[in-house]
Specification:
Elements: E1 4-5, H1 7-21, H2 25-44, E2 50-51, H3 53-59, E3 64-68, E4 71-78, E5 81-89, H4 94-99
Parallel strand pairs: 1-5
Antiparallel strand pairs: 2-3, 3-4, 4-5
Length: 103
């Protein structure tokens, strides 16, 4: 089970962690577990995700996505190893955030 995070996705997770640390543990435990489990599933089965056409157009390569409410994980297949490129709250302006990340 291999995968890696882009620097931006790592920063997203750090931001999410800081936010969740401010909320009572019993309320955020399912979110933390959901994120952990989904990342493991992406690593094991990267082809199960749905293609995200908007993100694919922005980056110029196929971007897949999976959701664990209230977060959406964006990733791509990088030579057989999933690269998680973003972890964003579903209420955010995804197009705007991802557009700023194009290298």
């Amino acid at each position: 089970m291999r995968f890696y995070f882009s620097p931006e996705a790592s920063a997203d997770l750090d931001e999410i962690q800081r936010y969740l640390d401010e909320i009572p543990k019993q309320r955020v435990a399912p979110i933390r577990k959901g994120l952990r489990d989904l990342i493991r599933e992406i690593a094991s089965h990267p082809y199960r995700g749905a293609s995200h056409s908007q993100a694919t157009l922005i980056f110029g390569f196929e971007v897949k996505t999976r959701v664990v409410a209230p977060y959406r994980i964006f990733y791509r297949d990088n030579r057989g190893i999933p690269e998680i490129i973003a972890v964003l709250h579903t209420a955010r302006d995804i197009e705007s955030v991802l557009s700023k990340r194009v290298h």
